[in-house]
Design goal:
This protein has 3 domains: 84 residues, no CATH class; 109 residues, Butyryl-CoA Dehydrogenase, subunit A, domain 2, CATH 2.40.110.10; 137 residues, Up-down Bundle (Butyryl-CoA Dehydrogenase, subunit A, domain 3), CATH 1.20.140. The protein is 45% helix and 15% strand. The chain is built from 11 helices and 10 strands. The chain has a 4-stranded mixed β-sheet. Helix 3 packs parallel to helix 7.
Length: 397
């Protein structure tokens, strides 16, 4: 298999790099955010996304009939990797989760309303899946959507948590239980879109170990008209499962992990421990070599996922393998740095003796966010075991 980029992809990569340099802003590009630049919202960030939209880079792999570029998914992959490498926000939820799901399952009315706004970077979404008692087991969700026949819609009541972007997003993409008597917890759930600024929605800050803001969102009798039901009533879990496959490789890139590894490798080259060069330590050299190999494996996992998506298929197993491997890689790099650095490795940013200004202490805390978003590591292992290896599944689980 040839892992080199074809000439047209290399040309696009150079174009993206030139664009980044032309639009460089320290407020927008910050590698210390460890690939989570999409969790912040500033006027400059919105301007940067608008500039990308003007290039036609949002929705490049969407069908042309919906305003997309009809291009190979490799272009989106290269774009995201280059953005992640400099800590810039990338195409994310609107293009990779909401847009692709609407194209596959949404009504024409929803497509006409939302797809142009996504392509023009005019809208931000929050994703409402996780609940206090429905995290790894999303099918256990309890948020209720009760039919309102008189007004032609649904009334939603319940709580979501760990919702990123809810404090600045314009629209909420969330799943609720519409039929508690469906017989299976995977059935009887429905996917909705609703504006975040309406009465009955309360957003509360939930700080994380990685210093990023996520949110709890409380809904109290919030009305959603039928036109904002995504797909068929009762099939929400299946749509969300598919959307998560797209999320796992549109919000989690390899570049952020590669850059973290390169910073660690370069530190090993120059650091001293107990007065001796760390690069001469056999244990340190072994760790660097092992992680270098893991980085290359992560790149191949990504390419397999992109190839599946580019072929018009849902990269279910491939995305789970990619997400699991890269999240573990991020933890392994941070663990290795702190282990080799010794006591000074746990010093935080701004501490005079902190190696690499405390980046790896921060990165280790950040990996908690990585291992939860888009499904925990345990969820990824279950997907691989059941759908990839064909291991038995208990009915009703």
């Amino acid at each position: 298999m040839d892992f080199t980029y074809p000439p047209e992809i290399l040309a696009f990569q150079r174009e993206v790099r030139a664009f980044i340099q032309d639009h460089w802003d320290d407020e927008v590009m910050d590698v210390r955010r460890e690939g989570m630049a999409q969790l912040v919202d500033t006027p400059k960030r919105r301007e940067f996304m608008k500039a990308m939209a003007a290039q036609g880079w949002l929705g490049m792999s969407w069908p042309t009939e919906y305003g997309g570029g009809g291009m190979d998914g490799m272009y989106e992959y290269v774009l995201n990797e280059e953005l992640a490498a400099v800590g810039a926000p990338y195409i994310g939820k609107g293009v990779g989760i909401v847009g692709k799901t609407l194209i596959r399952h949404g009504s024409e009315e929803l497509k006409q309303e939302f797809l142009p706004q996504i392509l023009n970077a005019e809208i931000e979404f929050a994703i409402g899946y996780t609940e206090p008692n429905a995290g790894s087991d999303l099918a256990a969700l309890s948020m209720r959507a009760v039919r309102d026949e008189e007004n032609g819609g649904w009334r939603l009541t319940g709580q979501k948590r760990f919702t990123t972007s809810a404090h600045f997003a314009e629209w909420y993409w969330l799943i609720a239980r519409t039929d508690p008597d469906a017989g299976s917890k995977h059935k009887g759930t429905t996917l909705f879109l609703l504006p975040m600024d309406q009465d009955g929605i309360q957003v509360t800050n939930m700080p994380t170990l990685g210093d990023e803001r996520v949110n709890e969102v409380f809904l109290d009798d919030v009305f959603v008209p039928d036109r904002y039901v995504v797909g068929e009533v009762g099939k929400g879990f299946y749509y969300v499962s598919e959307a998560l496959d797209f999320e796992r490789f549109t919000l989690f890139t390899v570049s952020a992990y590669v850059k973290r590894y390169e910073v660690f490798r370069d530190w090993v080259r120059t650091a001293e421990v107990d007065g001796r060069p760390l690069r001469d330590d056999p244990r340190a050299r072994q760790v660097v070599a092992r992680l270098a190999t893991a980085v290359e494996v992560a790149k191949v996992h990504t390419l397999r996922t992109i190839a599946k998506a580019a072929a018009g298929e849902v990269p279910n197993i491939e995305a789970a393998m990619f997400k699991l491997w890269t999240c573990q890689l991020g933890q392994q790099v941070s663990d290795a740095m702190l282990e080799l650095a010794g006591p000074t490795g746990v010093l935080r940013r701004g501490s005079p003796d902190a190696p690499v200004d405390g980046r790896f202490e921060h990165a280790l805390r950040y990996t908690v966010v990585d291992t939860v978003g888009a499904g925990t590591n345990e969820v990824q292992r279950n997907i691989i075991a059941r759908r990839g290896l064909g291991l038995p599944v208990n009915n009703g689980v």
